[in-house]
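Readers of this paper often ask what the protein records in our data store actually look like. This encoding replaces a full spatial description with a residue-level series of whole-number codes. For reference, a complete record is included directly beneath this paragraph.
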Amino acid sequence: MRVVLFTGKGGVGKTTSAAATAVRAARAGSDTLVVSTDRAHSLADALGLPVGAGPTPVETGLWAQQVDSQARFEEYWGTLRDYLTMLLKHGGLTGVAAEELVVPPGLDDLFALFAVHAEARSGRFDTLVVDCAPTAETLRLLTLPDVLGWYTDRLIPVHRRLSGVARPVLGRDLGALLPDDGVLAAVSRLRHALADVRDLLIDPATTAVRLVLTPEAVVLAEARRTFTALALYGFVVDGVVVNRVIPDGDDPWRAGWAAAQQARLAEARDSFAGVPLRTVPYLPSEPVGPDALAALADALYGDEDPIAAVPVEPPLRLVGDAVLSVALPLADRSDVVLSRVADDLVLTVAGRRRLLALPEVLKRRTVAGASLQDGRLEVRFLE
């Protein structure tokens, strides 16, 4: 099983790149499902065919799916939504306002990834190509198991003991505001489901992320930030796709654009050194349909296998038994904040925060210092 996720800023050709990769993989003999978690429903437009909420046949060896996350939303968030809504209404908010506040932005995108996990574990396909929503926040939300895990492992046992004492004291009305076993079970169920999805998506033997961008300063800057964030959260990036590269020409207008793009391409190669960077020329027409997408894949991959794993350094590794090494490519030292909470390291990079559960060998050791060198944060522990 191979899972390849495509992400990037909206409008850079992310969906087209994902669809082209899926067509190429299927025509090479791999039973392939291309899944879109993007609510824009542009996958059907790229394929030139209607795409349903379940795997829809496209051609021999290729299926497509536009995920409808509503069912999983109700399964995993319904109980928590009802409890949180009740709390807010008790605080004086109206029904509509309360219901809007208990649905965090990006939650639909997160639950859409549950469908990816289900298809990956079904064994029906050799390859899953995922067209993610145009934001790295979907992947960031997969750090929720760390937060929920802290709550379920540390607070739930204490909460259950205290609530047995507090309910009789508070009375029926206030006691009803305390979460019951059903709410706690929903938190635990969501936490384990998120952990299953995250374990699949950060497994370097199975899954890789590919960044898609265009050779423009603003787009490249966002791709650089996304690259750092993906490494922080443990995702392996095994490729960068640069779309819409304008070839040089005789007229001054095109020559000017081509020169500007070449400067951005040089920056991209420096930024993503060590990661394969592939370019696609600005095509004369929009690639729609499997045959046009196959031609795009030829330009993108040449004779290479589009889903082959690329050897990359793991985002997190233990060096000896006293150094924890975390990949933070393109990070600036001034943006990195490190602290220790019990058995976890709290790592914040440019406002993005991750809880890192320490390996058993480091849990009882004290942090001696840290340094950021060559795109890796080396955290040293006393031996």
Notes: The chain has a mean pLDDT of 84. The CA atoms of residues 32 and 127 lie 5 Å apart. DSSP finds eleven helices and 15 strands in the chain. The radius of gyration is 23 Å.
